[in-house]
Batch of 2 targets.
Target 1
Amino acid sequence: MKSTKVKGLPAFADRQWSELKANQWYEEKGWLLGCNYAPSTAVNQLEMWESETFDPITIERELGWAANLGFNSIRVFLHDLLWKHDSQGLLNRMETFLRIADSHGIGVMFVLFDSVWNPFPEPGKREYKMGVHNSGWLQSPGLEVLKNPKRHNELEDYVKGVLTHFANDKRIHVWDLYNEPCNRNIASYGAHEPEDKADLALVLLRKVFTWAREVNPSQPLTSGVWVGEWTENEIKELDQFMLESSDVITFHNYDSPEEMERRIIKLQRFNRPVLCTEYMARGFNNTFESIIPIFEKHKVSGYNWGLVAGKTQTSYPWDSWTVSYAGEPSLWFHDIFRADGTPYKEEEINYLSRFKQKKNDRPAM
């Protein structure tokens, strides 16, 4: 097999975990099953974490529901503006969140940056549209910072500050450095997105990996691929960098079970743990019952999108940006529970509940 090192990377890349270390980490953690999580009372990352709206009561209740499903890991988004305007407050609230999650036997994958949805974030921005999928979600960093490489260094203190504080925290499973960095949000904010967004994101992502490697946390670093082909002979530069710089391999897939398995097989050539950090779109036959058996077969960990339907409106499909829905969709796109804890589909709860067992009983990696 060819070396998976990126040509020309600076010396910090030597700190990338070896395949042996990455696989030993996975053996220790065991199979991770969970979801992408924001409390039902938060429309975006700012409302989730800002002091005026941080909601530990709701978080405690909803993570209890996650634990009852057998989930042992969750993926949670941060935002650079939280650090810029209240760094100590953010760290304190992250500590509170981690205590709550840990009390339920749940570890956390934190996401530092995100290139999806609104490219113009502002502190306290909490507007959203009823019936529109993730209408209030915010990019981090905003477009004005992303498209100006001279401003990228404004983000260094955020990356290093958060990772340094939690560098040896066993409650954190993974650091996901940048979510879907080349996503141009064509159906929602495409008129504002630069055509060279992938190139701009790669410039920033190289810096982010450098800063993170300088901290050298005890948890693995990753940034996940989500679109295009990932073969050795057909791969974009950004995807190549992400796959060959990550300690553990992460990816997204909302397609059919057959496509999910095809993607997993492509990524196994890196000889590292594989985690699907976004899946579950019921309208595409990407469901718990159709996808989790594939994860089990290939020893892939998985995080579906959404836990409790709320302000993010992700029970509505992506096309709700262009198609009006008179009411709640008959087939939910994402999410598992209503805000009162009632399951959307009792059959799903029964299926997922079979994973409610001690960590040591989970399938070995």
Target 2
Amino acid sequence: MTSAIKPEGSDLASRATGAALRESIEQSARDDGLATVDLSGVQTLAESFADEAFGVLALRHGVDWVVEHVEFHGASEAVLTTIARVIDRRYPVEVA
């Protein structure tokens, strides 16, 4: 069973912390096929953190991989918007 990955703190900002979260997500996805990320305690998410954690995931593995292997719990609309924005910046979807 997958245990949730819960970043420490309510205001996440540093690239180093984002990289550590990304590594935890990748490891959990390798081990369990799914990484569950609990963002219920997060009030603010800096774009630098989100880019390092989630933008780089999309760049390395593709958006489909993120959708299939990462599950978000408890994230506010603002946090999810920041995540979507950095993923789109790293891996833009072209409309035909």
